Amino acid sequence: MPNLSTLPEGSSPPAADHPRWMQRCLELARLAAGQTAPNPMVGCVVWQQGLVVGEGFHPGAGQSHAEVFALAQAGSKASGATLYVNLEPCNHTGRTPPCTEAVIRAGIRQVVVGMVDPDPRVSGSGIERLRQAGLDVVVGVEQDACQQLNEAFVQRITRQRPLGLLKYAMTLDGKSAAVGGHSAWITGSTARAAVHQLRSTCDAVVVGGSTVRHDNPRLTSHGHSSHNPLRVVMSRRLELPREANLWRTEDAPTAVFTGPEADPACRQILVAQGVEVISLPILTPRLVTEHLYQRGCATVLWECGGILAAQAIQDGVIDKLWAFVAPKLVGGVAAPSPIGDLGIHRMDLALPLKHTTWRSLGDDLLLEGYLDLQPKERVSPASSA
Questions:
Q1: Helix or strand or coil: residue 91?
Q2: Is 159 strand, coil or helix?
Q3: DSSP element (H, E) containing 146
Q4: Beta pairing class for 43-48 and 51-57
Q5: Residue 345, helix vs strand vs coil
Q6: CA-wise closest residue to 23 among 115, 83, 86
Q7: Residues whose CB falls within 8 Å of the CB of residue 131, separated by 6 or more in sequence, listed in order
Q8: How confident is the model over 97-133, as pLDDT tens digits?
Q9: HSE of 318 in the Cβ direction (CA atoms, 13 Å)?
Q10: How far is the C-alpha of 209 from the C-alpha of 239, rounded, in Å?
């Protein structure tokens, strides 16, 4: 096996090594999880003569892209090197100059790209610009993993709305609380830590007024990250407590969405505490989601009760589910379930999940899956006999 460190300058890495370095790009990109919206998460590695001579990631909108940081670290060693990046380098001037030109000026010989950028301002043009300049460009290395990392960014571009993620916990018999409404804690500490980590990767987390009144949540990452999402409350009349953890805006920003019938006195109290209050003509999950999209959000986490969860699903703003199942039984016909009435009266009309995975978190199980809201032909009981 050759000694890679003695390879001549300008040698390309073996194609078999491409996945390894692309995975390193993804690791770097994740360092800014929850902080780049509306931009994607991007990591970059510069490889020269068997050694990594430069690394970087995009820290947030308005700041330099991953390629710029990696090339700066590589310096003169970038000449004749291979550059790995999980997303196609940009070829337009936005808040920052085109990365393609920085790559070309640095003397990079080969560029390995994880996925094509879905943004029409870039899509394919960055790759074409590099090839026109004489660079060898390899596209599609670890493509599925790259698309998974930036699924929220892709959705913002292709569907013009944030990725909606519904998270809930339930007992083995499908209850989200006991008959009296008590719900702390359904899951164990390992599962709760996973939720705190999840929040750190999201741009906003949404609850209803009932959750504020009964649970008084903080909705932060609880120290798992320096990033906390925008905390969003939906309340038509602003029937909210005067004091609540969510009003502590020094911990994280809070926005309350309300309707025309909002209580003016409560509005003044919230505003005085630094809470942003936004009035909508009709308070619906869809309109709140549209507003969050306009604010630049890419991932919106819904941690609401069953009634609001059902409304969000019916409004078509939920794409993905995190469902925790705890090995507990509480029983009770009147005990709430995590999702309210969806108007489904036949099992063959149930909303299916696709691409599901299960994993254990302590004693609890977590199901992750994508909600399939595409209309499909259902087989009637008569025809299936």
A1: coil
A2: helix
A3: helix 143-149
A4: antiparallel
A5: coil
A6: 86
A7: 137
A8: 789 999 999 999 999 999 999 998 888 999 999 999 9
A9: 30
A10: 7
What's the token pair of residue 304? Answer: 């609401």
User: Are residues 17 and 1 in contact, defined by beta-carbon separation less than 8 angstroms?
Assistant: no
* Residues 272, 72: Cα–Cα separation, whole Å: 45
d(CA 261, CA 241): 17
Distance (Å, rounded) from C-alpha 293 to C-alpha 163? Answer: 10
| Mean pLDDT estimate for the chain | 92
Taking alpha carbons only, the member of 216, 24, 226 closest to residue 114 is: 24
Return the residue matching tokens 């741009």. 203
Write phi, then psi, for 233 (nearest 5 degrees).
-120, 135
Which of these is catalytic: 9, 27, 55, 67?
Answer: 67
Residue type, 135: L
Q: How distant is the alpha carbon of residue 348 from its chain centre? A: 31
Is 67 an active-site residue?
yes
- Sequence-ordered strand ranges (E) for the chain: 43-48, 51-57, 82-87, 110-115, 136-139, 163-171, 204-208, 230-234, 254-258, 276-279, 299-302, 320-326, 353-361, 364-371
Q: Residue type at 203? A: D
Quick: pLDDT tens for 267-324.
999 999 999 999 999 999 999 999 999 999 999 999 999 999 999 999 999 999 999 9
**Which tokens is 105 given?**
């000026």
Residues in the chain: 385
